[in-house]
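User: quick one
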Amino acid sequence: MSELKNPSPAVETFPTGEQPTNISRRHFLLASAGITAGAFVLGFGLPVGRARARGGASADAPDIRVPAFLEIRPDNSVRLQSPFNEGGQGVFTAMAQIVGEELDADPATFLVENAPTGKQYTITANGMRITGGSMSVRFGYEPMRRLGALARMMMLQAGARRLGVPVDELTTEPGKVVHAASGRSMSYGEIAPQALDLAVPDPDSVKLKDPKQFRWIGQPVKRLDVYDKSTGRAQYTIDTKVDGMLQAAVQHAPRLGMTVGGIRNEEKLKAMKGVHSVHRLDGAVAVVAERWWNAKQAAEAAQVDWIEPKPDPTARHMPSDFSTRAFRERLAKEPGDGQTAESEGHLATAMKQAHTVVSATYSSQYVHHAQMEPPSTLAHFHDDGKLEIWLPNQAPDMFLADIAKRAKIDPDKIILHSPMLGGFFGRHFLYGPGNPYMQAIHLAKKTGRPIKLIWSREEEFLRDPMRPMAVVRFRGGLDADGMPVALEAISATEGPGEALANKRPKKVDDSAVEGLTGKVYAIPNRRIAQLYVKTPAMLSYWRSVGHSMNDFFYETFLDELADKGGKDPYELRLKLLEGNPRLTHLLEQLADLAGGWKRGPFTAADGTRRARGVAMASPFGSQAAVMAEVSIQKGQVRVHDIWQAIDPGSIVNPAIIDAQVAGAASLGLSEVLQEEAVYEHGMPKARNYDMYTILPPDRMPRVHVRIVQSGAKMGGIGEPPLPATPPAVANAVSHLTGQRIRSMPLSQYDFGA
Amino acid sequence: MELQINGTTYPVESEADTPLLWVIRDELGLTGTKYGCGIAQCGACSVLVDGQVMRSCVTPVAGVAGKQITTIEGVEDDAVGKRVVAAWVEHQVPQCGYCQSGQVMAATSLLKQTPRPSEEQIAASMTNLCRCGTYNAISAAVHDLAGGGPSAKAMQASTNEGRARS
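Assistant: Done. Structure below.
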């Protein structure tokens, strides 16, 4: 995802060369998009030839692609189309805060929705609209502020017109224009009708607020979606429904690449209760029924003759002899020094001159997204040939383009909805056979009925593309004082970027090595390399991507070097950060938050023997430092406390950051403590949460957060709190048990009673 | 067969062994109750049957005919359930929200049986999975409830939120 994470700086003006337009008078268009009459509507451009009146009983698809970015309604509420989807990370609330700040409207008065497809909503400078790479707030910040400021200026102009006073005599208070001289004021909603014909000012003419005057940015504003999510009202893709809809379930081939030969009991399946039809898909059998339970029962009962694929080196087929154990051994033995991703100083010389050279091999595991909402898609072909589709996604325009290409449908004939996500963590990008939408489209075509296809949890765990596995060979050189002076890391792995492209790029896939590269410690001679080894498994982005394992490798090996060199790992890190005030401060803030650094082992008040570990990471434009306190109870690692100091430069909502840190810590803990997708004979051993266990509530530690605002360029928040968590825990466990932890998950180690 | 859900009687066509979850979601269209695993591991499908929490994905519908079923759609009609929702809003519990219907039902069941649960009782009852890692926020909300909370102010705030968002 390197190209997604490191776009050029956020644009100061607006996307794709378009300027905002006042589209309030486009009645037909707006009515079809559900916009209130009399509302002031600010949008970008206008789709050509789409404005048409809608008949009441038409079976044609509604046109939702109205570029109505911001709507101020007569009741003074504000409707905002967010370019970024909400999946738990709080981005709808953050967008309301950012726009509300400059518009001078309380974020609580906002109704935020995920914007439809269309280039108008691509507001980041890299020209891609994705909810990922921890990009939404940091790259949406400038354009969304400017949008709010423009709308405020127009409210002032309309207010001047309405009150008959010069615009410079007016000011705003939340949700209203105020004329202090006469003591009069009017709400934005009341003024909106006066703004319907105003021209939009030049975006460069608006002045953004001085951050010192911020009323909402920087405050723990309450989330807009919490009530709906506490009462079952939030609607996810799996909850969508249209008239005449049938439901579908699939049985996937046990191994990717196999195809359907025959269905031995097809007639029996067709006769099962509620079954509408049975279908052969590419690598799956599908059953369509009135109700999903009946479809699932029949899909599970299907007795399918699966055919082995013909050898094809260009395809990702899962062979019957693949096992994760054997693959890990192969990665460890893979010959070669790999392709250099980052290099500094003179590694060979430094190693030769080193007082001590430490060599060690570290490894990681495949992990699942295991988001709580199983993937689904609702596909509906209208009478006019348009495809209306609801599906979980982190990149609506990319999905639309993919559907157009693969299903051979004119992009203009696809209406794509992106409902709220029941968790994502990287699950909902384009993953070929790892997404259900092509199956749903095929079934809708075949049956002539709208189809909602839901993957059962078992089918999801069979096709969920996984976070890559890696084996890293480290060498570290220490000088006579025990300070690291040279470090080499060769990671045998395949990154998600090259896996999805299904070919090796010329330069190293950043998503394979990030977290081994980009470390901030002053180790003068180093080489980071990737030894590309293609895996048959489907790979993916997973929360914090390469960092999710690479910071584990690096930070645990750094502790190994510290121990070999007789250094305290906290003091060593401080030493290696000399001359870096931002990170020195961050690490000191972490120690302060945790009541000081004490490595232990020590006996806690409850009598348990405990130790602490520390680790750092620099992911997605932010800086993070984590301390963990652990004990061993009944042979299992118990994490008591996680302290995290995080510096994203500057912030929008500290309460959401606290929640993201707790959430990312929980996922990092789950990964380091217990998660592993194991394959034997080309098949996953676990197909549900009984065998693939995720962190349960009783393993959740206390999480303490300190947000540090260094004022550096704004970084991300959704992913950055994860990567330093696993190594902090592993470092504590290594020290407590005397057993060097070199791989995840810790559940594979025996820590005695 | 008839089901009593949230005080309403629904005629039901589904076969006797159909899991309650799918009757609620598909036949009756109450989609607040979620499907997560289908094998009673995650708890996203939790509903109340005669006030007791049950994982509806493994509960055959025939077994609950004639009993009082409460789903998340009806939770605020219950005095305890209303408090639980208010505590969830006060403590800003949900992230993606997908598991939260089940979490709210589990907490409601616990507090209906045991108004002042101990630490151990809370841990034993609140076992539903959450991939977003909202466990500490859930714990804070349940401890607030166990102590008699949330405050009248938080109750009012939740009610107002409900009105504003409906």
